[in-house]
Specification:
single chain; rod-shaped
Length: about 190
């Protein structure tokens, strides 16, 4: 009823397993990189809040305007350095994530390629078999339609001499046959 077999072929199962393993490892790698990036962002926010709190305390405790400016300028240098360190951490995390994804891809590419090749070979073999079966069925159908007298059981093919030819009235029968309705004359000498 269905054009596809109900059972899963072993080649399909192994290819799906290989693809699943590859995607699982790739998602683990991406999740780990994302988690490290979130940890880095949380650390940056905590550090910036601490720096802002210290700068606020110094600004609020300043009695003169000159102390206020010196407190603000004293905190800009560490904040700039921390932002630079944050950018370096992000670059390092991106490079590590790229290396990890390359490693996972190299680890799984051979197995995935092998299973894909086996699956393609099986599909090609099955398609060839299906095509040959269909071609044979079409050839048989064409043969039956082109020579319907060869089909047994349809009553069309009769042994030679079993049928009687009827000639219309007034027509001459073929040579060697007597016309219908004429009786043999029996002469006795």
């Amino acid at each position: 009823m269905y054009p596809f077999p109900q059972a899963i072929a072993p080649a399909v199962k192994t290819h799906i397993d290989a693809q699943t393993a590859f995607l699982n490892d790739m998602s683990k790698s991406l999740f780990s990189s994302f988690q490290q990036m979130c940890d880095l962002n949380i650390q940056l926010v905590q550090t910036m809040l601490e720096e802002t709190t210290l700068a606020s305390k110094h600004v609020l405790s300043a009695d003169r305007q000159s102390e206020l400016l010196s407190a603000a300028t004293a905190r800009t240098q560490p904040a700039t350095e921390k932002l630079r360190a944050y950018q370096q951490h992000i670059a390092r995390l991106a490079a590590d994530a790229q290396v990890e994804m390359s490693r996972v891809t190299e680890q799984h590419v051979q197995n995935t390629t092998r299973t894909a090749r086996a699956l393609a070979d099986e599909v090609a073999r099955d398609a060839t078999e299906q095509t040959e079966r269909g071609l044979r069925a079409q050839q048989e159908t064409v043969r039956q339609f082109s020579d319907p007298f060869l089909r047994p059981g349809n009553g069309a093919a009769q042994p030679q001499g079993a049928s009687q030819q009827h000639t219309p009235a007034g027509a001459q029968p073929p040579a060697g046959q007597k016309p219908e309705g004429t009786q043999r004359s029996t002469t006795t000498h």
